[in-house]
């Protein structure tokens, strides 16, 4: 189930704001009934008409994208910075990112036009594992790894147990490269976890999302997920502990 104005926008009929205006003006019907309430939810089986014209819904599409650094995870930016949607100009459907990677973080990002699928993957109770590789200032020791794995206290709460391992240490330059796997999605969580232990993150990349990785995909490129991968993501989400 998705909000009616969102469904209209994703179908390319109008922008989200214009869709809301159309609803309030009584120009949208669902199964023959005029709807004037914003936030009304509809399913794929509901018949939606705008100004008396039946709305055709886009075929759902699912993409894996290798987000470069210094790109905004959004469909637009008020400062006119590059956004992830700029890389999807050849895609006919109106896709949007599932979750976020911050401006300076690169790596694996999923995009879709399937709201139900996106909500499933982003819902806190599904806890799909996400793996990051971070280059940090300082030498990470065993005790630091144990703290990351046990959970770090942040201003918005304690992080859940994680998995961490050192990939390499450069004692001359005093830097470490660490792999960290988490199940949550707090804002800038990985950076803040390291910062809470006194380590500044120099580079950060999301390497894996569940079973998906970046093999065969270069920064700025994307590929369509296979039906099997989409099915497996759905199964992975619903089998995670709540």
Automatic annotation (TrEMBL):
It comes from the Bacteria. Pfam families: PseudoU_synth_2, S4. One of its GO terms (cellular component) is cytosol. InterPro entries: PsdUridine_s_RsuA/RluB/E/F_cat, PsdUridine_synth_cat_dom_sf, PsdUridine_synth_RsuA/RluA, PsdUridine_synth_RsuA/RluB/E/F, PsdUridine_synth_RsuA/RluB_CS, RsuA_PseudoU_synthase, S4_RNA-bd, S4_RNA-bd_sf. Keywords: Isomerase, RNA-binding. Residues 2-65 form the RNA-binding S4 domain. The keyword Acyltransferase does not apply. This is Pseudouridine synthase.
């Amino acid at each position: 189930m998705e909000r009616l104005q969102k469904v209209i926008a994703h179908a390319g009929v109008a922008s989200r704001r214009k869709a809301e205006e159309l609803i309030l003006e009584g120009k949208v019907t669902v199964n023959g009934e005029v709807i004037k309430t914003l936030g009304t939810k509809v399913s794929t089986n509901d018949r939606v008409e705008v100004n008396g014209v039946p709305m055709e819904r886009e075929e759902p599409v699912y993409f894996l994208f290798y987000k470069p650094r210094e790109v905004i995870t959004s469909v637009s930016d008020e400062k006119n910075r590059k956004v992830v949607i700029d890389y999807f100009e050849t895609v006919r459907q109106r896709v949007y990112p599932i979750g976020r990677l911050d401006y300076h973080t690169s790596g694996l990002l999923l995009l879709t036009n399937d709201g139900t699928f996106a909500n499933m993957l982003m819902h806190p109770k599904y806890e799909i594992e996400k793996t990051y590789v971070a280059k940090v200032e300082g030498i990470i020791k065993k005790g630091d790894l144990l703290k990351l794995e046990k959970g770090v206290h942040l201003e918005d709460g304690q992080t859940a147990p994680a998995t961490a391992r050192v990939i390499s240490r450069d004692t001359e330059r005093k830097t470490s490269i660490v792999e960290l796997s988490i199940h949550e999605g707090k804002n800038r969580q990985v950076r803040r976890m390291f910062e809470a232990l006194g380590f500044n993150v120099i580079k950060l990349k999301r390497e894996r999302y569940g079973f998906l990785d970046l093999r065969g995909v270069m920064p700025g490129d994307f590929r369509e997920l296979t039906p099997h991968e989409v099915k497996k993501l759905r199964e992975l989400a619903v089998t995670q502990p709540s």
